[in-house]
Design a protein that fits this description.
alpha/beta; 7-stranded parallel beta sheet; Epimerase_deHydtase; NAD-dependent epimerase/dehydratase family protein; NAD(P)-dependent_oxidoreduct; NAD(P)-bd_dom_sf
Amino acid sequence: MNDDRRALVLGVTGGVGDAVARVLCACGWRVTALHRDPARARIGRSDIDWVRGDAMNGKDVHMAARGCDLIVHAVNPPGYRNWRGLALPMLRNTIAAASAQGALILFPGNIYNYGPDAFPLLGEASPQNPLTRKGSIRVAMERELTRAADAGVRSLIVRAGDFFGPHAGNSWFSRGLVKAGAPLRSVTYPGRPDAGHAWAYLPDLAETMVRLAERANELAPFETFHFAGHGLPRGLDMAEAIRRVVERPDLPVRKFPWPAAYLAAPFVITLREMLEMRYLWRETVLLDNTKLTAFLGAEPHTPLDDAMRASLQGLGCLEPGYMNNLVNFI
């Protein structure tokens, strides 16, 4: 183990940033996190060096990245808002800091880059013809990283589906399918019941990203991998996994109120942005991890029910009685 390895994580309070930071710390990396309120953010996270700053401020990012071998760019505009005004400037700050330090950029990608012409199985070389503004911005961000690689700044992109996990943050799972902080009374599913969907369990995804980053010297200056995760052939498979874990086969599965979202969208920016991505729930969209498994040998993979149990526990969605029974069983 090399105790001198240092990483800067941008977006550490989000789902991916938090998960990657945990794996990096467990692997012996010294992790720095940039946050506008480090005193609040460091509560319960003494394993991280907290630095005050803003990812929109290039000087802040540059100072936080000093001595770092890796910059994890897991920061996104909050609530889907103002991607055009925030996403690219933040990435450019990361690129500039990585260039100054000779650091690798680790970038969590998603499937916004793709349109229906690439469905149902997405490979790294699939055509990127997005239908949406956020998809176009994602394509532009990856082009920035490609150009940076030509100038000597290395980057590694790992694309994945929708996130779930004990610390899922602002995700479809924690804000859509279930209601965090309360025992489940129902599950809301936003997609077609028979359309396949890709889900990424955050601890597995984070382990994959760190394992790839630790072997970056074997990769091209700009490299992409697809993480298959839990690619479920039917959308309702996710709801049924929730039912199994909470031992409620009769738990109601409700449709997402898309008509109400359309009515409220003119007044709520987040709903308007969510509606733009609805097409990803209407068709089967899965990721091909052939390249990933050829390089790593296997993709880290927690069984779905185990991943679901940990996720619901972390989000405070299991009945107290369930936890007591679990303790008694152990």
